[in-house]
Write the structure tokens for this entry.
Amino acid sequence: MNKKFTTSQITLLGLMIAILLLMAYTPLGYLNIGPLAITFNIIPVAISAITMGPVGGAVAGAVFGLTSFGQCIGIGGTSIMGVTLFGINPLFAFIQRFIPRLVDGLLLGYIFQGVRKKSKNIYLSCAVTGFCSAFLNTLFFMTLLVGLFGNTEYVQGLMGGKNVILFICTFVGINAVCEMLSATVITGAVGAALYKARLLPGAEKNAEKTVKAAEV
């Protein structure tokens, strides 16, 4: 990529990473319901992707993935599932916790760019990106859970004889719905505010066009 990031965009990415770490190491980032937790950490990842594209999304996603894996070994809280998976296979546990968040952040940058080209509505573009952040995070997370640990006694017990699709739908349940709703609304609102503050790609150019049009 030959794009140069502005100082404000880099600063914003640093702020998003700081918020990610704060949320990861405090109860702010997770709401535990059942074996899975509702996570709000996907929102800073989405905002980073909106602000700095695939690069920013991947960086924030990697940080999220590392903090998620840290819970498998008691860093920044403990995930019962994470600890169990780590005890079964530490390498697979790292892949299952880290890769979904990294790939999610990377793809979100492209998703925002693609939607932005089709729509002039900045809120819609950001909201769609926020929705995809939660949807893809859940999809990748559960796919690797079943793919890497599907034959283990632990996951077989969670599945309870259900087929894979039914298991994923019932297992994520309300958690996924809450994540998608919150990520859609909050990312849309924050993204629109950042656009007005000229912190998003193309915002400054559009502002200049508006000023020139007004002068004419």
